């Protein structure tokens, strides 16, 4: 039996329809436990399912791109911090103040 699924994106509100079989619908429900399903059986021997709480491909791509960009920026900031830390340690070693960059657990804190 074919099921007409009406899906609504929770972010942008976009709606779309998808023809599904019982198995496809069950698989979709398993893959998207956050979605809200309302099943309405049509008198013409069809089933209509209203699905809220899903994310459309466009919003998913946008948020994946934003996350990847944020992750890359975080990695760049961390790399820059480590470079600066290395420069500071090298400068301290050149002035004889390298001891402030060295921590010996047996001696305790160097401060």
Give a written overview of the molecule.
- The protein is α+β, with helices and mostly antiparallel strands and 111 residues long.
- It is 44% helix and 26% strand.
- The chain has helices at residues 22-31, 57-95; strands spanning 3-9, 15-20, 36-42, 46-54.
- It has a 4-stranded mixed β-sheet with strand order 2-1-4-3.
- The longest helix is centred in the C-terminal third of the chain and has 39 residues, at 57-95.
Notable characteristics:
single chain; 111 residues; alpha+beta
Fold blueprint:
Layout lengths: L2 E7 L5 E6 L1 H10 L4 E7 L3 E9 L2 H39 L16
Parallel strand pairs: 1-4
Antiparallel strand pairs: 1-2, 3-4
How would you summarize what this structure contains?
With 111 residues, the chain is of the alpha+beta class. It is built from 2 helices and 4 strands; from the N terminus they run E-E-H-E-E-H.
Strand content: 25-35%
Average pLDDT level: 76
Helix tally? 2
Pairing-aware structural class of the strands and helices?
alpha+beta
Helix content: 40-55%
Q: How many beta-strand elements?
A: 4
What is the element string, with H for helices and E for strands?
EEHEEH
Query: Judging from the principal axes of the Cα atoms, what is the shape?
Result: rod-shaped
The major sheet is characterized as: 4 strands, mixed
Q: What topology, given as strand order, has the largest sheet?
A: 2-1-4-3
Gap between N and C termini, in Å? 75 Å
Contiguous low-pLDDT stretches (5 residues minimum) are none
Radius of gyration: 28 Å
């Amino acid at each position: 039996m074919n099921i007409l699924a009406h899906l609504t994106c929770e972010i942008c509100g976009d709606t779309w329809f998808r023809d599904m079989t019982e198995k496809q619908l069950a698989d979709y429900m398993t893959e998207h436990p956050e979605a809200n399903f309302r099943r309405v059986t049509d008198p013409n021997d069809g089933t209509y399912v209203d699905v809220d709480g899903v994310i459309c491909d466009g919003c998913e791509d946008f948020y994946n791109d934003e996350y990847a960009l944020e992750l890359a920026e975080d990695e760049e900031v961390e790399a820059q911090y480590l470079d600066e830390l290395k420069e500071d340690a090298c400068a301290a070693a050149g002035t004889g103040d390298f001891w402030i960059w060295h921590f010996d657990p047996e001696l305790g804190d160097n401060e």
